[in-house]
Amino acid sequence: MIIIDSIQFIDLKTQHNRLQHRIDEALKRVLAHGNYILGPEVEELEQALAAFSGAKHVVSCASGTDALLIALMALGVKAGDAVFVPSFTFVATAEVVVLLGATPVFVDINEGNYLISMASLRAAIDVAKKLGLIPRVVIPVDLFGQPVDYDEVRRIAREYDLYIIADAAQSFGGARAGRRVGTMAPITATSFFPAKPLGCYGDGGALFTDDTDTADVFRSLRAHGQGKDKYDNVRIGVNGRLDTLQAAILIEKLSIFEEEIEARQRVARRYNEALGDVVATPKVASGAFSAWAQYTVRTEQRDRLAERLKEHKVPTAIYYPKPLHCQTAYLHYPTSPGGLPTSAKLAAEVLSLPMHPYLDADTQDCIITWVRDAVT
Ligand SMILES: Cc1ncc(COP(=O)(O)O)c(C=O)c1O
Questions:
Q1: Does residue 157 share a domain with residue 109?
Q2: Is the beta carbon of 205 within 6 A of some atom in ligand 1?
Q3: What pLDDT shows up at residue 229?
Q4: What's the gap in Å between 203 CA and the centre of ligand 1?
C-alpha cells in the first residue's frame, strides 16, 4: 500500500522548500538596501517578465485587480460606457468596471472550455446599444489558465470599435499559436496572488503592452497619476505599486517557472487520460497551451464527488459557485439575452481538483481512483 502525505490543493510549501535559500538571500538583499518602494528588483522583475513573455513593456502593480483597474483608467473608461465581461469569473473582472462608474454587461461562456462565448458577446453588444450605453471595452478572461482565442475577439472588437483587455490573472505562462500570454491582446493584466501559476507571497500583479505611451500611462497611474516627479500629478491615479520584497520573491520564482509550467502539463495530461470517460474534462484548443491555474472537471454528480473526495482528505474547490450576474451586488447590471444558461449550469457542475507542479504520480493516481469510484 502506498502511504501518501496530506494532499495539497496547491502546494506552495514544497515550492518554498525548494527555493528557500535563494528567497532568503533575495530578501536579505532588499533589507540591506532598504528601497522598499520601486527598488531595483521591481525593474529587474519587469524586464525578466518582458523577456519571458515577449511583451515590449511590463509594468508591475499591487494586484491583478489593480492591473485591471489601471488598464481601464488608462483607456478613460467612465459612466455611460459598457464593458463586456464573462459572468463566470472572479468578481474583480467586473468590480473594477463598476468602480469607474461604467456598466458591466455580462456575457456567457462556452461549456467545453469555460471561455467567453463570441455569440453571447455579439448579443450583449446589441443589448448595451439598446440601453443607450457606449460599447467601449471587452475583458475576456483566460479562465483556469487557457488563453482565449484573441484573434476571434479582435475581429469582433474591430467591428464594434472596442478595446480589448485580456484578464490573464490565471493564465500567465500559457500560450496560443506560438504567442505567450502578455502578447496576445493590446493590454494584458495578470495577478501574482499566491495561488496563481506565478504567485508571490502577498498581493501583486502586472500589465503587459507593446505600446510605449500606454506603458508610461500605466506607470503614472500606479503612482497616483505622477508626472515628471513625485509631486507633479497629471492625472487621477492610485497607490498601486508592487512591493520591492514581492518583486525579489518573484524573480526567484520566475527562474523555475518554465519547468513548473511543464510539470503542470504532465499533471493535466494524466488527469485527462484517466478521467475523460467519467467526467467532462477541460478542453484545450489545438495550438493553445494552458497554464493550468486550475484543473476543473464537470459532472452532474459534483456535490457527491466533492463529498467523497473530502472523505479521502482530498481538497477540492468550486470556481465559481455563483455567476456574477446572480450575485447580490451585480443583479441589476445587464446581461446578454437569455439568462446566461451555460454560466448557470456550470456553476452547479464544476469542481477543481488538486493541481500544482509538485503533485506526484502516486498521489495523483489515488485521486484519480477516488474520483472514478465516486462517479461511476
Ligand atoms: C480572473 C481573475 N481576475 C482578476 C483577479 C484579481 O487578481 P488579484 O487577486 O491579484 O487582485 C483574479 C484573482 O484573484 C482572477 O482569478
A1: yes
A2: yes
A3: 87
A4: 10
